Amino acid sequence: MSTDAVIAREVAAVVRDVEGRPGYWRPFLLRHAVVTLIFLAVLVGLTVVGPAGAAGLARGTAFGLVLMAAVTAFDGMQHRRRLRRALRIHHRTSCPPGTVVHALWTLEYVLFRVPTHEVRLELRTVTAGRHDGGVLRLDQDGSAPSWVVPDELLGQEALAIVRDALGTRLREAF
Questions:
Q1: Strands (DSSP E) along the chain, which ranges?
Q2: Which of 164, 155, 152, 172 has its CA nearest to residue 7?
Q3: 3-state SS assignment for residue 136
Q4: CA nearest to 120, candidates 133, 130, 106
Q5: CA separation for the pair 112, 119 (Å, rounded)
Q6: What single-letter DSSP state applies at residue 131?
Q7: 11 close to 84: Cβ distance less than 8 angstroms
Q8: pLDDT at 144 over 60
């Protein structure tokens, strides 16, 4: 059964994967670096044309760097919060708390059944799998996890089936 605790575990696992992806933070950091450089260029420009001297430039630069570091840290926290919120909404919408979910595990496929429909995942299409943090994450295209399966749907026999079906494509953390 889907619960808030299960959804929280699933979201945490996906957030770790998304934020840990190579290059994920690069656009964020570049944007903040460019804004900082523009801010410092304006300070230098005002120093050149205005009455402020080198001491004013040094004070302004120090203040500007501290201010931009604080803005970057705050924006980073907000960015992570928005990502978590979006993923939490997605997971709650996909499988709301209280939804009864059953899984049938075989060496060829996994069949997930909910009251309204069922989904079949062919295990030969899985490119990578990771089991840690109370969830099994299965990728189909090598990017973000396509499937996040809580341990409640796994059990020991299903995990053994996944180990056999995926072989070296499965990584486990203990």
A1: 102-105, 109-113, 118-122, 128-132, 135-139, 147-150, 170-172
A2: 152
A3: strand
A4: 106
A5: 5
A6: E
A7: yes
A8: no
